[in-house]
Amino acid sequence: MTSKISIIGAGMTGATTAHWLAERELADLVLVDIVEGMPQGKALDLLEAMPIIGKDVAIVGSNDYAATKGSDIIVITAGIPRKPGMSREDLLSTNAAIVKTAVENTLPLSPDAIYIVLTNPLDTMAYLAMKVSKLPRERVVGQAGILDSARMRAFVAMETGVSVENIACYVLGGHGDEMVPLTRHSNVAGVPLRDFLPADKLEAIVNRTRKGGGEIVSLLKTGSAFYAPSLAVMQMAEAILKDKHLIVPASAYMQGEYGLHDIFFGVPVQLGRGGMERIIEYQLDAEEQAALEKSAAAVKESISILHTLVQI
C-alpha cells in the first residue's frame, strides 16, 4: 500500500518539501493551503514534472483538510515567515493559532499519523502540536537540528576546503540564537573540530551557525530559508517510512533526558516507523551543559508565553 504524506502550508518551504519527497518517490502527496488555487497549481506543476524523472507519485493540492485523510505523516510548515529584525518568538502568537488549527483539522482524519513540525518558533510549536493532539511523544517531532547541523557542516567545509561528506557536526538545543553546536563531538574525518581549526575560526563558525536563519532572512528580505529546511524534513520522513532507525538531531519532548522535563528540545533522536524511537544522550562537559541549560531556559520562556496565549 502506498504511503501518504500531507503538507500543511504550500508556501516555499511546503512546496519545496513536496519537491524533494516526490523526487524520492517516497509517498503520494497532498499540499494544503488557505490561498485559493495556490496549492492546486503547485501540485499540478509538480505532478507534470514526474514523467520527466520517471516517478509515479500522486500529488494533489487542496484548500480543504479532507484531502489529507489517511495520511501516514503530517508535515506542518504553515505560518508567517520571519522578516528582517524579527525573532522567532515574535511569530509565536500568530503561528500558534495556525498550528493549533492544522492539528485539530488533520488528526481526526489521520489518527495514526506522525507529525513533523517545521513552523517557528519550532520547539514551542512542536510542544503545542503534541499538547493539542494529545499524542504520545513518539509521534510528534520537530525539524531543526538536521538543518542547524547541516549549516554548520557547510560552514566548516567552506573554511577547511574539505568535502562535506567528511564532516560530522552536531547541533543541539533550542532552534534559536541559543542553540548549542557541540564542537567537541563534531569532527572532520574523525578529528575533533577543536583540534582541526584555530579557536577563532571555530568560534566564528559557531556564531554563524547560530545566526544562520537570520542571515538568510536578511539577504532574502521577503522570506526565509526553504531549500535546506525542506530537505531536512524529507530526510526525517524517509527515515520514518523506511523504518531506518536513523539517528538525527531533532526536537523531541523531554522526559528527564539531559535533565530536562516538559519541553521540546533539540537532541539526537532515532527515527523509525513508529516515529521517535529513543533519545541518545551525550556525555557533556561543564561548558556544554551550561550552554544547554541556557538554551533550555529560552525554550521554557517561549513555552511559558504560549500558555498565556493558548488553552492547552
Overview of this structure, please?
With 312 residues, this protein is α/β, with parallel strands linked by helices. It has a domain of 139 residues: NAD(P)-binding Rossmann-like Domain (Rossmann fold), CATH 3.40.50.720. Strands 3-2-1-4-5-6 form a six-stranded parallel β-sheet, sandwiched between helices. Strand 12 and strand 13 form a beta hairpin. Helix 1 runs parallel beside helix 2, helix 1 packs across helix 9 and helix 5 runs antiparallel to helix 7. It is globular, with a radius of gyration of 19 Å.
| Relevant CATH superfamily of the domain at 4-142 | NAD(P)-binding Rossmann-like Domain
**CATH architecture level-2 label of the domain at 4-142:** 3-Layer(aba) Sandwich
Low-confidence stretches: none
Strand content: 15-25%
Mean pLDDT: 95
Order of helices and strands: EHEHEEHEHEHEEEEEHHHHEEEH
Question: Biggest sheet, strands in spatial order?
Answer: 3-2-1-4-5-6
Give me the secondary-structure category. Answer: alpha/beta
- Please report the number of helical segments: 10
The major pleated sheet works out as: 6 strands, parallel
Could you say what the CATH topology of the domain at 4-142 is called? Rossmann fold
Reading off the top of the CATH hierarchy, the class of the domain at 4-142 is best stated as: Alpha Beta
